[in-house]
Specification:
Blueprint (H helix, E strand, L loop, with lengths): L16 H11 L6 E3 H10 L1 H4 L3 H12 L5 E3 L5 E2 L3 H7 L5 H13 L4 E3 L7 E4 L5 E8 L1 H5 L1 H41 L6 H12 L8 H36 L11 E2 L21 E2 L16 H7 L14 H15 L3 H11 L1 H13 L7 H13 L5 H11 L4 H5 L1
Antiparallel strand pairs: 1-2, 3-6, 4-6, 5-6, 7-8
Helix pairs in contact: 2-4, 2-8, 4-6, 8-9, 8-10, 8-12, 9-10, 11-16, 12-14, 13-14, 13-15, 14-16
Length: about 400
Amino acid sequence: MDTHISTTPFGRRSLSFAMISGQVSAKECTADARADKWRLFRTVCESKSMLGVTDRALAVLNALLSFHPDTEIAGDGNLVVFPSNQQLSLRAHGMAPATLRRHLSVLVECGLVVRRDSPNGKRFARKGQGGVIEQAYGFDLSPLLARAGEFEHLADCVRAERRELQLIKERVTLYRRDIAKMIAFGLEEGIAADWEGLHAQYRAVVSLIPRTSTRDELAPLTEQLRGLATRVHKTLESHVKSEESSASESQTERHKQNSNTQSHIELEPASKKELGGIAEPNFERVEPAEQPQAIKPPTGYPLGLVLRACPDIADYARDGISGWAELIATANVVRGALGVSPDAWSQACETLGAIDAAIVVAAILQRSDQIGSPGGYLRSLTDKARNGQFSVGPLLMALLRARGRSPDAATG
C-alpha cells in the first residue's frame, strides 16, 4: 500500500522555512540511530537558550515523549506520537488548549518535532494485521533523534559557559571582599592614603554589576576590580615597608598606633554650628564615638533582616557580623569610608540610638550610588527622627522590596 507522509500543515496554518528544515532533519535520521529519550530531553533542556525554546514548550515536549512507548527511540521504529489535545493537556499539567497549541508551534519552529497532519487534521494511527502501525498522523520525533549529536554539543557549550561564569563570579566576589576589607583596614589603622577616592572608585565599579549578568558583562568589570585591588594592596605594602625601614634605621622603639583610631575625610555639609556652616576637608585622626554600655536590640526587625536588606556592609566587617555590637562597630568604619563626620555619627547615635544609626549607615552604603552626600543625608534623617518624622522600619522595607524580597520572606 502506498503511504504518503504529510509535509504541509492542516487548515489555516501555512508552510514555513522552519517546517521544511525540520522535515530535512527528519529525513537525515538513519535507521541505526538510537538514543535514550529522557537523556536526549535533558540535553535539549540544557541547550534551550541556544535553541530558542521556552520552558513551557519543553513541558509540552516532555509530554509528547511520554506518549512514545519505549525508553529508547530508534530510527527504524515508529517515531510519530498521536495524542489528542485533551490527553496532551493532561500530561502537560493541565495546560490550556490555546497555550498548548502555541507551544506546539514553538517546538515545530525550533525544529524539534515535525507535524504529520492527517487529511482532516486529526491525530491517529492506522494499524495493519497483528496491530502493527502502518501509518500514523501526529508529531514526528525524528528531528530529535537526528540532531542528538548537535544537542549534546550545544549542551557542552552551555556547561562550559556556565563554568566560566561561575569562575568569574567567584573572582568578582573575592575582589570585592579584598578591596572592601583592605580599605576598612586602612581606615581603622589610620594609614595615610586617599581612602575616600579609592572607595569611590570601588563603589563606581560595583554599581555597574548587573543583577543578572553574563560572562561578557562581568569580564571588563573583573579587570577593573583586579586593578583596583592591586592598587589598594600596594598602598598597604608601601606603608608596611616604610614602617619597617623607619624602625630599622632609627633602632628605637617602634611607634605603636592605636588601632581604634581612624582616618576621616569630611565630605558632608557641616552643621550650622560648625565653621559657620562651611564644610572643610578634615584629615585629622579622630577618636570614634563612644559606644553605649548597654545595647538593646530594636523591636520589629531582627539582625538577619537588616543584613538581607543591606548585605554590602558585611564586606567591611573584619570577623563577620553576628550581633548588634559588630554591626555598630562596622558601621563606624563604613561611615568613615563614606565621608560621614564623627559629629554627624554622634548626633545620629544620640537621636536614633546606636543600633538604628548603624542600620541607617548600612542603608546609606547600600544606596551609595544614589546618594551624593552620605553625611548630609544622615543629618537630614537625624533631623527628621528628632521631629518624629522618620524610623528605620520603612527604610528597611524599601530596600528589601528593591532587592526583590518581601518582608515575610526576609524574616522567614
